Amino acid sequence: MKKNIQLILAAACFSTLFVACNHASSTKTGSDKDSTTAQAPQIPDSANFKATVQGKQVDLYTLKNKNGVTVAITNFGGRLVSLLVPNKDGKLTDVILGHDGLSGYQIKAETYFGAIIGRYGNRIGKGKFNLDGKSYQVDLNDKVNTLHGGFNGFYKQVFDAKKIGDQQLELTYVSKDGEGGYPGNLTAKITYTLTDDNALKIEYSATTDKATIVNLTNHAYFNLNGAGTPTITNDSLRIDADNITPVDSTLIPTGKYEKVKGTPFDFTSLKTIGADIDKTDDQLKNGKGYDHNFVLNKHDISQSIATVKSPETGIVMDIYTTEPGLQFYSGNFLTGLSDGKGKATYAHRSALCLETQHFPDSPNEPSFPSTVLKPGETYHTTTIYKFSVK
User: Fold this and answer.
1) pLDDT tens digits, residue range 208-265?
2) pLDDT tens digits, residue range 73-109?
3) DSSP state of 274
């Protein structure tokens, strides 16, 4: 009898333990599932950015506003690494492509992710220009042309960083006379400010001791569906521009202005990016998609000059600028080989760039807005990327 009672008690304990263990297991599985499907994106570990490069300290800096919007910036290239904004469900989404550490940005094939571009954003035909009666030859790093400042543009330089409170970062870099072939000692300052209305403001300023050319911008790759998702072609885009500056087969402007009305380049009202991107068109053929400068109708920063909307996340990005042009690039040269954040692959057309700037090859086109900066003058321009949800 005593033995039977012991067996009954043992069976009861085993049953209780089995139910408890099984319940704990299913609870854990459910929790894991929830965290997999709704896990908030993370800012990369700052330890992965700490290093000495060119004798200067590299680090990762984080700005955060009262709404939880967070931006991470490294002073290596002045790069935007992450930008976390709320989607329609109130959950944070990282809308910037990038890498988890400094080494990702140092590889040869890295495509300017999030970088400050200088001295000259975009292309200069054959890398040549004349200034004050003197001819200059700068790096040819884009076949027969110069692109984004050359082989060692600002995207490869270490900026001096000064964090001002929780929501502002000031970056300074002195580009020496002759660097990349450009004249003059140029002192550039870039200030990132994250505002409480979920806007990222970028202010650029520069001075020089010798006449030079300057065209600064930021090369952020945006995907409002979330960095690492496969395409941006389902997003909608508006650009307040009636003209583009058409380009030749090497993507250098022809010097003309071309109306967008009736062409695949008409984004004067919201249009799905993929609607016309594969149409038969010489300009689309030259750029392998969109890779063109849009001539903005207005650029006094008082109103949005471009809007992107994601039907998936509901995130809306509005752009304001004092610059006369906007380079729209549809990620045509992304290959899917990039080792992105969280081991993501960044596929063909999985991001877009909207770079506020002066026009490409302006030093060789007198009819374009001038990019000349002289001693005693101050270059200053502002761009704002503002986020909301619909």
Assistant:
1) 999 999 999 999 999 999 999 999 999 999 999 999 999 999 999 999 999 999 999 9
2) 999 999 999 999 999 999 999 999 999 999 999 998 8
3) G
Please check the confidence at residue 119 and state whether its pLDDT lies above 80.
Answer: yes
pTM to 2 decimals? 0.89
Going from the C-alpha of 235 to that of each of 155, 267, 291, 389, the distances in angstroms are: 28, 12, 17, 14
- The token duo for 105 is 């940005």
Q: Using CA atoms, how far apart are residues 124 and 150, in angstroms rounded to an integer?
A: 10
What φ, ψ does residue 203 adopt, rounded to 5°? -110, 130
d(CA 252, CA 246): 8
Nearest-angstrom CA–CA distance, 368 and 359: 7
Pinpoint the alpha helices (H) of the chain: 2-38, 102-106, 282-287
Give all strands of the β-sheet with 92-94 in edge-to-edge order: 60-64, 70-74, 79-86, 92-94
Number of CB atoms found within 10 A of residue 42's CB: 15
Q: Quick one: the chain helix, strand, coil %, rounded to 5?
A: 20, 35, 45
* Residues 57-81 pLDDT 10s: 999 999 999 999 999 999 999 999 9
Query: Catalytic site residues?
Result: 219, 355
pLDDT in tens, 280-290: 999 999 999 99
Which pLDDT score, from 0 to 100, does residue 174 have? 98
Q: How far apart are CA 164 and CA 193, in angstroms?
A: 9
The bridge status of strand 271-272 relative to strand 306-309 is: unpaired
CB atoms within 10 A of CB 133: 5
Terminal CA-CA length for the chain = 72
Q: Which helix (H) or strand (E) holds 365?
A: none
Q: Is 140 exposed, middle or buried (0-12, 13-18, 19+ CB in 10 A)?
A: middle
> What percentage of residues in the chain have a pLDDT greater than 90?
86
Residue 229 · residue 334 · CB < 8 Å:
no
Cα 315 from chain centroid (whole Å): 16
Q: How far apart are CA 317 and CA 384, in angstroms?
A: 10
Q: In what order do the strands lie in the sheet with 325-329?
A: 258-259, 241-245, 291-296, 325-329, 353-357
